[in-house]
Design brief:
single chain; mainly beta; 189 residues; seven-stranded parallel sheet
Length: 189
Amino acid sequence: MPENIQGKFTRIGNVIISMHETAQIIIRGELVANFGLPVGSNQECIIKLQENAKLIVEGKFLLSYGSTIQVFKNGILKLHSGFTNCGTIIGAAHEISIGEDFLGARNIVLYDSDGHTIIKDGKEIQRSRPVRIGKHVWIGVGSVVLKGVTIGDGAIVGANSTVVQDVPPMCSVGGNPAKIIETNITWRN
């Protein structure tokens, strides 16, 4: 294993890792990449870290087949324990933090940046803001979480939602843009 990857990293099938020499993957628990890969499949899981990027895994995190993680220059991605289903895309330009017992359904997208410079009235809009996802959060199939969002502990994001503002703990949100549907809820696997 390369020097800039530390810890227990289980790779199943075709896992593509592209890392700048100054990037680091620090695993204090375990990272399983291409989890659930169907027998005979050549699906890829892609992990790409640019200059000075960090991927930190604190617990056991399962990244399903067909998923992509990209941590851009100087960005940080912190994963605690949990699971993302196939087709997940995570792009951390600044910082994304995912808490314990995370459940991400198929084809979710998490971005903390616009990716390009946006100018309004001659001024640049802040391109990147951290995304913080609490403990025991479930994000439904096809949902998108964008820059600057905090999702509270125990929350549920309904299928095909676009989250552009904070989600309080123990509530469910849905829609585009996502709005509160229920409060004082809990969920279990």
